[in-house]
Amino acid sequence: MIDFQRLISLLVNNSVEFILVGGAAATAHGAARLTEDLHIVYRRAYDNVARLVQSLAPYNPYLRGAPPNLPFNWSE
């Protein structure tokens, strides 16, 4: 399961501009819905994308559902 607090703190501490959406946002507002993922919408300005990429790079992001070992370049 994703550590929501750690991931949100990571983005906030790196000044990534984003909003939380989906089930996690509903849970944060008091809904009883259980979710095991985190959906964000980030500002697509170059500097913000650069901060997002830099923040998540240590975690080796990958494309969900992609074949194993598919070449993937995590960059702006």
Describe this structure in words.
The structure is a single chain. With 76 residues, this protein is an alpha+beta fold. 37% of the residues lie in helices and 11% in strands. It is built from three helices and two strands. A two-stranded antiparallel sheet has the order 1-2. The longest helix has 11 residues, at 46-56. The two termini are 27 Å apart. The relative contact order is 0.18. The model has no long low-confidence stretch (mean pLDDT 87).
What is the radius of gyration computed over CA atoms, rounded to a whole number of angstroms?
A: 14 Å
Element order, helices and strands?
HEHEH
Beta-strand residue fraction: 5-15%
**From the structure provided, what is the oligomeric state, counting identical versus distinct chains?**
single chain
Q: Choose one word for the global shape.
A: globular
Helix content: 25-40%
Helical segment count: 3
Largest beta-sheet details: 2 strands, antiparallel
Terminal residue distance? 27 Å
The stretches of 5 or more residues where confidence is low (pLDDT under 50) are: none
* Biggest sheet: strand arrangement: 1-2
Number of strands: 2
Structural class: alpha+beta
Return the average pLDDT rounded to an integer: 87
Short description:
This protein has 76 residues and is α+β, with helices and mostly antiparallel strands. The protein has helices at 4-13, 22-28, 46-56; strands at residues 18-21, 39-42. It has a two-stranded antiparallel sheet with strand order 1-2.
